[in-house]
Amino acid sequence: MSKNVAYSRTYATSLLKGLKILSLFSRQHREWGITELSLNLGLAKSTVSRIAHTLEAEGLLRREVRTGRFQLGIRLWELGCVALDDGKGFQEKARSSLDELVASSHESAQAGILDGLEIVYVDKVDAPQSLRPYTSLGARFPAYCTATGRALLAYQQDSVIKKIIKKGLRRYTERTIVDGNELREELARVRAQGYAINRGEWREDIGGIAAPVRDRTGAVIGALGVTIPLSRFPESAVSPMVKSVRRAAENLSRQLGYLGEQRSSA
Fold it and tell me: For a Cys staple, 104 with which of 121, 244, 245, 258, CB 3.0–4.6 Å?
């Protein structure tokens, strides 16, 4: 075996271990010590220490001065922003549409993208009401049982839907769709009407309405939606809320260069 091949394999192995270290960080576990990382990954402390310090030198990790424990570094935030910037300006331009949506609906609004099989919120504007659902930027939710997620899933290739169904449709509430055929029917309905509705399928007391956002080519690249406490979501509120959501999504699509025929907002 040549030295170059051996080096390449060693480098690849170290890279994989580094990625595994980074993947352990979450909202629930924001800090890790070397010993904890070693135990969780089944790696020698010396190996974990070497890789963690390399990641620190590259800005991917940082150490808390007082405890010496590792946290995610600012470089990851920078890379995340690059990953979310698809060159079409969805995240950059979404804020004005979210402000518009909150002003017209008086409910909290979010902009989301599909990442794998989950919906990720890349921007949000909270409602002025004291009673409002809480969401956080970067939060992930199952796409099949949220309005924003279904507004995106409805326009994905069938292979994506098959993966979601194969993975299993977990029941979060009594209203969650857990049958694959029923999910397909719901996604077809979303495509036909141009918006998605969720009534307590992800969380018992929270509903939502969302509509797709298109780029200049007509591709669906994101979705805008509102989350609504079910106590403020009677049937009489659906039509005006749908109108507000679709109008905001269509306005954003036009800002992104979409010149295709717009659906009626009536």
Answer: 244
